[in-house]
Queue: 4 jobs
Job 1
Amino acid sequence: RWLVVKDSFLMYMKPDSGAISFVLLVDKEFNIKIGRKETETKYGLQIDNLCRSLILKCNSYRHAQWWRQGIDEFIRKHGKDFLTEHRFGSYAAVQENTLTKCWLFRPLLCLQATSAVFFMYLYFLRLSPEIFMKRPVVEGNRWRLDCILKRKA
C-alpha cells in the first residue's frame, strides 16, 4: 500500500489497482502521535484530524519516528495554510491573483439531476467519495460527498 502525502490531505491507496482506501484532510487539528500508549499497537503511528484517525503499523519504533518526522515536516512546510483557521472560519487561505476561484462544488450541490451526472462529475474531478464538502465535520457524514450525491440523486 502507498501513503500519498499532499499539502492538504493524506491518501492511503493500493498501488496495483489505484483504489483509494482512506483520505485524511489536513486541518487545524492535524496531529501525529506515536507509541504503544497512543496508538494501541507495538510500533504504531496515529494521524488525526478533526473527524478521522489513521493508524499505521511500523516494523520498529525508529521506523515510526521516521514516518512521523517525514510527514510532519512536509505538512508543516507545504500545508501550513490548512493548519490554521482563516477568514469566515474557512479551512483554506484566501488565494490572491488566481485565474479561477474555488466555487467548483456549488453547482454540484444545487443540481437536480440523475445519479449518472453526479458520478460523471466524480470521474471527471477524480475525487474520493469520502471527501467532506463542508468542514469542520460536525454533523456526522451529512456533508460527505457520497452522502450528498445519494441525497441529490
Job 2
Amino acid sequence: MHLLHTTTKKLEEFVNPPDYAILSHRWREEEVLFADIHQEHAKGMKGYAKIEGCCEQARRDGYQYAWIDTCCIDKNSSAALAEGINSMFAWYENAQVCYVYLDDVTDNGDSETEPAFAKSEWFTRGWTLQELIAPTSLFFFDSRWREIGSKNSLAGLLSSITRVHANVLTRVNAGSDKLVATRESFSVATKMSWAAGRKTTRTEDRAYSLMGIFKVHMPVIYGEGEKKAFFRLQLEIIRTSHDQSIFAW
C-alpha cells in the first residue's frame, strides 16, 4: 500500500501501514496520478490543489500520511490496480479518518447550503457508496475545505439522500460485534438498491465498486462489459451467502 507523506508529498510503500487519513472525492480534469506526483510538473496540475488541501487537513489532525486514489495507485500496473480495487473497502475502513471533498458545494452557512449538499455529484457516483459506508470517522468539506459536518451529525440527511439506513452510517456508536451485525442485517437486495442509479466512468466499475460492500473478491477484467462483471459479482455473492433476496433483485 502506498501512502503520501503529508509534508514531503512523497509516496512511501508499506506492508503494515501507519495511521493515515483517506480522501473521497470526484475525479476532475488534470488529476495528479501515480506517475506525476514526484514530478515537478505536478504542482502545476489542477488536481494538485486538492492534494494540498487533503494533506493540510491531515496534518492539522495529526496525521503524517494520507491515501488519495489518484496518486497512490499505479493504474499502469494491472496487478496494482486489481489489488487496489479488491482492497479499496478495507483501506477506507481501516483509515483513521476520511475526508469527503465536495468541490461543487460552497458552505455559506445559509439556507442554500443543504440543497447544494444534497445535489452534489459525489452522491451519484458508484465508488463513493462504499467510501461513505466503510469509514468509521468521516467528515464532509466544501470547495474551500471548510467543514460541513460529519457522517454522524448528518446521518439523517445522508440517509434521505442515499437510502442507506442511518444505523449503517452511525455504527461508530456501536460495539464492534454490533457493528458487524448491523451491517449484515440488511439483505442483498437492499444493498443493491443503495447502488441503483449510481454511475461509473467504466461500466465494469458498477460491479467492481460493490465488492467490498458484499465482502467478495474477484479478478478485475476491464473490457468484459457491465453484464459479465455483474454476473460474476452475483455468482460470488451466491457462493458466500444464503440470502435468497438476490434473486428477487
Job 3
Amino acid sequence: MVLKIGSGDIDDLSTLNVLDEESLLRELRARYKKGVIYTYIGDVLIAINPFKQLNIYEKQQHDLYKDVRCRHQLTPHIFWVADQAYRKLCLSKKAQCIAVSGESGAGKTESTKLMVSHIIHCSGDAGDRELQNRIIETSPLLEAFGNAQTCMNQNSSRFGKYLQLNFTNTGRIVG
C-alpha cells in the first residue's frame, strides 16, 4: 500500500520522508478533515480538539486499548498513552508521568479526564464511579484559584496542574 502525503492515512508522522512544518500540518489537516483527531509523532501523541463530542471514548474503546502490546496494532488514541503509563507502572513498580501540553482551549483538562478514566478502567475499578468522580472533580476546584477568561476559553488556567494518582502494589487505584 502506498501512502500519499497529505492523505491523512499516516498514523505516525515521524515516518514521513520530509519532516518539515508544511508536511506535518498538511497531514494533520487531512487527518482532521477525516475526523481523526489523534496522530503520533514518534513517542508523542498529538490531539486536535474537535470542539464536539465524539463516540470514541466508550467502554468498547476502553476494552480495546487495555493492555495493548504494540502501538501500531490500533489507531492512535489517548487511551493508548494512559494504558502504557499504567502498564509500565505495574511492571516496573516505578512512578510514571504523562505530560499534557497545549494552548488555551486545546482540551488539556478533557484529555486528562479521559486518561484518568482509562487508568481507572485498567486498574480494575471501572465500576468505582465515585472514586473517578472525586479524582476528576478536584480539577475545577484547583482551577478556580487561577483561571481567567480568554478569547479561546471561558476559564483558561493560569498555572500548571499536577495530578498524582496513588495505587496499591497490585495496581489498584486508591486515590
Job 4
Amino acid sequence: KQGEEEVASHHEAAFPIAVVASGVWERHPQVGELILAHLHRKCPYSVPHYPPMTEGTSLEEYQRILGYRVDDSGVEGQDSFLKRMSGMIRLYAAIIQLRWPYGAKPGPGPHGLNHGWRWLAQMLNMEPLADVTATLLFDFLEVCGHALMKQYQGQFWKLLMFIHEQYFPRIQVITSAGQMGSVMRLKQFLEGSLRSRQISPPKGYLTSEFWRY
C-alpha cells in the first residue's frame, strides 16, 4: 500500500520505506516473504509476469489479475494504473539494494541485488507490453541502475546496450503516439547512461551519511 500510494506520488519515499521493510525482513523472514507475496499479487510485473487470460475468466476478473482497480464505477484509468504499478516497482527496486544498517548479519540484505539482475533478465525475455514495459523498465533502472552498475560493472553495461540496441526497438514498434512519454523517458535514460558510462544515485537515496544523524 505504501508503494502504490506514497511512493507513487513521492518517489523519494521509496528509500526510507524500503530500508525499514528490509530490516523487518531480515529479523522476521516470514514477514518478508509475505511482503513479497502481496507485492506480486498486487503488481504481477514485480515477478515479473504478464498473466495470460485463461478460459472462463471474465474480463473484469482478468483486469483485476493484471493489477487494475475495478469497482462499481468501472476500471481505473491507464494513467492511474501505471502510476500505482510504478510506485510498487520503485519500492521493490529500493528494497533489493538497501538493508537495515543496524542488523547483526554481515553481507547483503535478505532479498538482494541478485534479484534485481534476475528481474531485468526475465523482463527482457518477455515480449514488451505497450506503455507498461517502457514505464516499469525506466522506473526500475532509475532507482536501481546505479547499484546494479556498481555490482555488475561490465556485465551491466552489456545488458544496457542490449536493451538500447535490441529490446528498445521492439518497444517502439508496439507504442502508439499517445504512449510516447514513457518511451522517451526510457530512451533518454539509456542514451545518457551509455554516453557517460555513469548512472548517478537516485534522488533521495539513503547514503551512509544519512545514518550519522
